[in-house]
Amino acid sequence: MTAVEARNLTMRFGPRVLWHDLSFTFEAGQMYALTGPSGSGKSTLLNCIAGFIEPSTGSIMFDGNFSPHNQGRQRQIRAEHIGFLFQNYALVEDSTVEDNLQIATRTSVFSKKVSRDRMSEALAKVDLDLPLKTDVAILSGGERQRLAVARLLLKPKPLILADEPTGALDRSNADRILGYMREFAKAGSCVVLATHDPQAVESCDEVIKLKNPTGTRKQLVPARLYP
To answer: How far apart are the C-alpha atoms of 149 and 147, rounded to whole Å?
Structure first.
């Protein structure tokens, strides 16, 4: 099943062209890597897929439907269908672990609260032995990254976008995060990573290499699987 289809995407910032005429299809149950040198537009492409910004030209479709221009509808799609693992973790710094887990699972004011037992189970899956009332501000970088993954575990989304998910981690924790991403894909999510990490690239099924001003694509066979 096609999760995302991009047609003839071009992104310009003034005279600078990040990528030109870029087309690709992302399927459910697969992991994809966006690679390229710094400044090639990996994070920008993720933001376009997420609907945070629009490409200069071209179109993006989700499950056969064009990404809407209406901001309210875009927010609804992000809340219901897209999970994020940002480079800066996107946590609420002046709040608790519990609050951050609750926020991530609420797609509307009518959403039910997640039970404390389910939150504790999600933390245990990512090896975070923390009281739910722990302040996020005191967490290490690795703990914050795993908390962000725990949010995804509570409410898996059809599309998961991860911006340098292993960038701030040691190899052991990086491999653990890649394992979680692979598990999401095996469960049916489409996972897209923007990454510089060669081992993250190896863990993916396919890679899009961004080069100014065009993208090229090649198959990686077999994918390296993490336990």
So the answer is: 5
Give the range among 109-113, 154-158, 218-222 with minimum mean pLDDT: 218-222
Range of the domain at 60: 2-92+156-219
Q: How far apart are CA 166 and CA 13, in angstroms?
A: 28
Helix (H) or strand (E) holding 109: none
Structural domain total, the chain: 1
Q: Is residue 69 part of a domain?
A: yes
What strand order describes the sheet that includes 159-163?
A: 82-85, 159-163, 190-194, 31-35, 206-211, 214-219
CATH number at residue 22: 3.40.50.300
Q: Is the peptide bond before 68 cis (omega within 30 degrees of 0)?
A: no
Convert the pLDDT of each residue in 20-74 to its tens digit: 888 999 999 999 999 998 888 999 999 999 888 999 999 998 876 655 555 666 6
Asked if 210 and 40 count as a contact pair (C-beta separation under 8 A), the reply is yes
Q: Is pLDDT of 110 > 60? A: no
